[in-house]
Amino acid sequence: MVRPLVSAKNLEDVKIFSTETYLGRLLVELRDAWKFSIGDVLVRQAVYDGSSSLDLVSIACPVPKKFKVVHIDDLGMPWVKQLSVKGGFGTRFSPLAETWSYGEYRFSVDPEQIDSILLGYKYDPRIEYKQLRKKGSKHDKTKT
């Protein structure tokens, strides 16, 4: 009888590595959740004690912060730049692993981008900001 090379204890060690170590959790996230392509627009959720909330630009501008995948390196790591609500990119160019490591953040494709693909309309990552500005200007006109 041939003994298996990997025991049940070894398999338990593998499971502990992927669920309880920093590097293991990062690799699992990269494998399972970060199946992004260049050009995808992402939103970021902050995760606190099992609950999450969308990362917003500010209290005065309650639209989600958005990031665009601009590069994927040889390791498969997506690199992003933050999109400005007024158009264009921020100056910071960072890998998702870096932004993931500074806090508990999860990234997903912008739901508006998914809707535009499914419903067949032109995607604009600034649509929430434009709608907010339009509501604000109507409100300003009625105040005077």
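(ticket continues) Second input and output from the same batch:
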Amino acid sequence: MGRVKIKRDYEAFLDGYKPALIMATRSKYLSLVEHYPSYHFDEDVIYFFRTDEQRDWFIEKIEEVEKYTYEECILTGLLMGFPRKSVEFFANNERIRKETGVLPNRDVAIGMAWAGFRFSTSLEILEEEARWMWERYTHPRAIENPAYFWSKKDNAYLSVPYGDYNRLREVREYIMKERGLITRST
């Protein structure tokens, strides 16, 4: 398998379908988005928005929650355009990791990279979450991208063309078998 070119988040934002963007203050791509409405989250991170109204809404909401908490993680994940169940899965895992020092659910956690979106989800809800993404983001510059999932066994990304639910199911089952998880037919 050749080198995989996974679309970057700032590219999806510039293409007009990614609702918001988080960028490091030292990113070499900052000049591409610095004219958009923004919010300096902390000294290392800036959030970019499509509109002033979206930024103002976010600032109002973010001031209601404590930084680096479960609630802030949920708010940010939803703002970035990720599916709710995946956002909750990630935020809960981060909360537990902060409390215990151990990241839970590693056996079922998987990253999904598609069309400028990268997020963690569970193998148990992977098909549902991919469907949500594919139905929500139908921009021509989004749907031309396959989704990618990392296979440790193959040391490579496994690709799934946009909307190919049969291939998605195959990749999910393959990764579950690779991890020694029991699969059940759906």
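Agent notes: The chain has two domains: 1-17+106-186, 19-80. The first strand starts at residue 20 and ends at 24. Closing as not reproducible unless the customer responds.
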